[in-house]
């Protein structure tokens, strides 16, 4: 029930499409809660959800999102004007690349808002604008993001269910339990005891330009998502038509790769700081609140942190209420902290640089656990 309520705006519409899947009702003598779930915590969270709805925290301020879009468009135009006015020498080129990298990062946070149905009251409008932002402003398919991201939200940090941790075990050993299991099984796809070092090579710099960039095209062709392909092509056509006359073929390709590199660095550090240092294991089928809290942590609030991370520094609140507009996360945070304190659940919040460092520390720790199990167990 809790994931269903969390993900959907129009519950009645979704129930209509789900009705053919109904098998039957539980017999009166059957428990309504699974033994792996904390009944009191579930009830308290549902009460919190009702309070959140009553206080209007799920209602968006559309002016906020209009300003987000406008600042992205202004930066995009400024990047082009920089090269057009100052020429294609090194300094204007680099300034333009940084501006465009910022555009890509901020457009990433904005498409995330629409993808989560956080801006409009109907799913239809959110989906349409989502296609524009992720397709035309970023050159990626909305269907690809939806396919992966909602799996992540349903079971964060659950191995074989959360696609965001699919790099285990091929590239990284993640989580204490999974790393020990890998070592006991004598499996070694990479030198995991050095993963906190090679993370700086195959992680932040490479994810977007060397993996996402080609995989998104494979995804849309394989699944025949031609509408998404059309949206994506508008981005690439616009980018190359805008910069090709100013930079030439080599210059525009260099700019494109540099922008993807900047975007990748930004994206990986921000998205992984909330999850990689947290509990990673197989799905234990615990309640919604516990599932999200054990897999997420927050980063301290500040104007810069809010902007830099697209308010994903409030990762806990975002995971508990995925359709909540991000400008309201700070309002609900005290209520979430109170519920955590009541049930003895840790609510982690840390400085930004500490969160970055914890990614590396957690990789080092899990790599050492793997090595010990690999050699001695």
UniProtKB/TrEMBL annotation:
Q: Which InterPro entries match?
A: FA_desaturase_dom, Fatty_acid_desaturase
**Single biological process term from Gene Ontology:** fatty acid biosynthetic process
Residue ranges spanning the membrane: these are: 64-87, 198-220, 240-259
Q: Which keywords does this Swiss-Prot/TrEMBL entry list?
A: Fatty acid biosynthesis, Fatty acid metabolism, Lipid biosynthesis, Lipid metabolism, Membrane, Transmembrane, Transmembrane helix
Cite the Fatty acid desaturase domain residue spans from the record.
92-349
Keyword Magnesium found? no
GO CC field = membrane
Q: Which GO terms describe its molecular function?
A: oxidoreductase activity, acting on paired donors, with oxidation of a pair of donors resulting in the reduction of molecular oxygen to two molecules of water
Q: Which domain of life is it from?
A: Eukaryota
* Protein name (Swiss-Prot/TrEMBL): Fatty acid desaturase 1
Q: Which organism is it from?
A: Buceros rhinoceros silvestris
Q: What is the lineage of its organism?
A: Eukaryota, Metazoa, Chordata, Craniata, Vertebrata
């Amino acid at each position: 029930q809790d994931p269903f309520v969390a993900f959907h705006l129009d519950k009645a519409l979704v129930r209509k499409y789900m009705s053919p899947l109904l098998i039957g009702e539980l017999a009166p003598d059957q428990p309504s809660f699974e033994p792996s779930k904390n009944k009191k915590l579930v009830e308290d969270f549902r009460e919190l959800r009702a309070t959140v709805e009553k206080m209007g925290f799920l209602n968006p301020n559309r002016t906020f999102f209009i300003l987000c879009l406008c600042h992205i468009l202004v930066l995009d135009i400024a990047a082009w004007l920089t090269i057009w006015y100052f020429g294609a020498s090194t300094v204007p080129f680099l300034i333009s690349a940084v501006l465009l990298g910022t555009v890509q990062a901020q457009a990433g946070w904005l498409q995330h808002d629409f993808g989560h149905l956080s801006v409009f009251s109907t799913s239809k409008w959110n989906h349409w604008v989502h296609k524009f932002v992720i397709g035309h402003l970023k050159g990626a398919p909305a269907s690809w993001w939806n396919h992966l991201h909602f799996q992540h939200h349903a079971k964060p940090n659950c191995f074989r269910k959360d696609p965001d941790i699919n790099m285990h075990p091929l590239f990284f050993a993640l989580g204490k339990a999974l790393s020990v299991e890998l070592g006991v099984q004598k499996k070694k796809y990479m030198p995991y005891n050095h993963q906190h070092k090679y993370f700086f090579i195959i992680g932040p710099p490479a994810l977007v330009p060397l993996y996402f960039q080609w995989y998104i095209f494979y995804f849309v062709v394989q699944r025949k998502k031609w509408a998404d392909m059309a949206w994506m092509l508008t981005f690439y056509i616009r980018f190359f038509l805008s910069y090709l006359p100013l930079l030439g073929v080599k210059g525009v390709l260099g700019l494109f790769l540099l922008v993807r590199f900047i975007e990748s660095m930004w994206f990986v550090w921000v998205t992984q700081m909330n999850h990689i240092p947290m509990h990673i294991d197989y799905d234990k089928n615990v309640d919604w609140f516990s599932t999200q809290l054990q897999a997420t942590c927050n980063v301290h609030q500040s104007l810069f942190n809010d902007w830099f991370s697209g308010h994903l520094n409030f990762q806990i609140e975002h995971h508990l209420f995925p359709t909540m507009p991000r400008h309201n996360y700070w309002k609900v945070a005290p209520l979430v902290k109170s519920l955590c304190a009541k049930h003895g659940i840790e609510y982690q919040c840390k400085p930004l640089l500490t969160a970055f460092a914890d990614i590396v520390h957690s990789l080092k720790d899990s790599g050492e656990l793997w090595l010990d199990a690999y050699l001695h167990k």
